[in-house]
Amino acid sequence: MAIAVGDMMFAKWSEDDVWYNAKILGVHSDHLEVEFVDYGNIDEVSLFHVAKYVHDIPREEIIDENVSFFIGTVASKEIGATHILDGKEKFIEDIFHLFKSGKMSNDIKIILEDGEILANKDVLSTRCLYFEAMFSNNNEIKFIEGETNSVDMSYCTKVIMEKIINYLFSGEMRFNDFNLNQLLKLMNMASLMLLDDVFVNVETFLIGPDIGWLPDSGVNCAFLPELVSGLMLAEQFKLEAIKDEIKLELYKSLKDIPNIPDIVEDSLAFKFLPYSLVKDILLCEDEWSESDWREMIMDSSPSTKQKFDAFVFWLSENDCSKEEKKKIVDSFNLDDFTVEELLTEVRLSGLYSISTVCSKAVDLIQKKDQAICDLIDHINYF
Fold first, then answer.
1. Where are the domains of the chain?
2. Bridge partners of 23?
3. pLDDT tens sequence across 338-374
4. Taking each helix axis from N to C terminus, what angle separates 240-252 and 290-297, rounded to the nearest 10 degrees?
5. Beta partners for 46?
6. 32 has which bridge partners?
């Protein structure tokens, strides 16, 4: 659901858990600033506690007396008298409730991975080109689904298809009640079903400049497992823009990867990444110009030691060819390590020969000694 400053919606006030008419004053990544227009107070509310239509407010919730149950949006309260009665929102709401109640003639059965959904053929055909072609009466091309009134989509879960079918019947879809993996599966199904508007809006919700909901692993390492599995799905579904953003988030979080097994459930997910994606993460800096990279990463770039630790962490459960290993190892600048790190963790990793490690350690010691001598000479000079 796209939200912009000035939109009139419904919002739940945390002080009394009541839903009120509200105007959006500010849009942030994890909350909204709203004015409860009937009372004049301003507050911050969660993205989960706003609704565009009355039917989106859970039935068991308490709703303020000023909220209209017959008009779909609060904005209609600000429109003056007119000679046109606009009941489109109420019509949509009624049709949606008819569908949800099961009283509509649902003549199509959609078979899914974990259940079935019944829906109306005419509505599906009218709202979706995919279903229109499937149920077409074209004499030249006939699909078995049009004859059996049964659609096998066993590669899709019920929760994803319910989201799509509800959208086809109501014209609205919420994204903030899905996790990252579900949203990526929704994008994949939207692509397969020619629902370009759904695909574009989910992508914008995840990585758009105004919302950018994609979990910020650089701040909260609890999101790492979700980002790792999301990266694999983005690769599988060929969602290149999403894949690039997730790679960037994981790159910024490389410092956390070896240190989270005790505090984050499923933290070992990073070890299950294929070499190709691990390489893409560790070397993603090479894909950008220096100026663009500085703008995106700023102070979030991991150190060479942190990238090294993440690769060693992955290698503890995986292996790769000498050429593949060399591709990543060559990106580590040994000058960025301390002498102690070289003689312990770097040497024990087996990624470098003993002579290479020792030679670099001696070189660093000599440089340090020379720097001390230069400092002493400088002090004595004054």
1. 1-86, 214-332, 334-382
2. 8, 35
3. 999 999 999 999 999 999 999 998 988 888 766 666 6
4. 70
5. 31
6. 27, 45
Give the count of alpha carbons within 13 A of 171, CB side only: 13
- What does the block give as tokens for 279? 């390489």
Return d(Cα 377, Cα 370) in angstroms, integer. 10
- Please state, in angstroms and rounded to a whole number, the distance separating the CA atoms of residues 125 and 131: 5
The length of the chain is 382
pLDDT digits (tens, 9 = 90+) for 156-195: 999 999 999 988 888 888 888 899 999 999 999 999 999 9
Of 83, 84, 50, 80, the closest CA to residue 67 belongs to: 50
Beta bridge partners of 36: 22
| Distance separating alpha carbons of residues 26 and 5, to the nearest angstrom | 6
Task: Give the SS3 label for residue 131.
Answer: helix
- Note the pLDDT of residue 379: 64
CB-based burial label for 382 (10 Å; 0-12, 13-18, 19+): exposed
Q: Residue 347 to residues 166, 254, 350: CA-CA distances in angstroms?
A: 58, 21, 6
CATH architecture of 1-86: Roll (2.30)
265-297 per-position pLDDT tens digit: 555 678 889 999 999 999 987 776 566 656 655
For helices 180-192 and 224-237, the axis angle rounded to 10 degrees is 10
**Lowest-confidence region among 2-16, 198-212, 215-229, 284-298:** 284-298
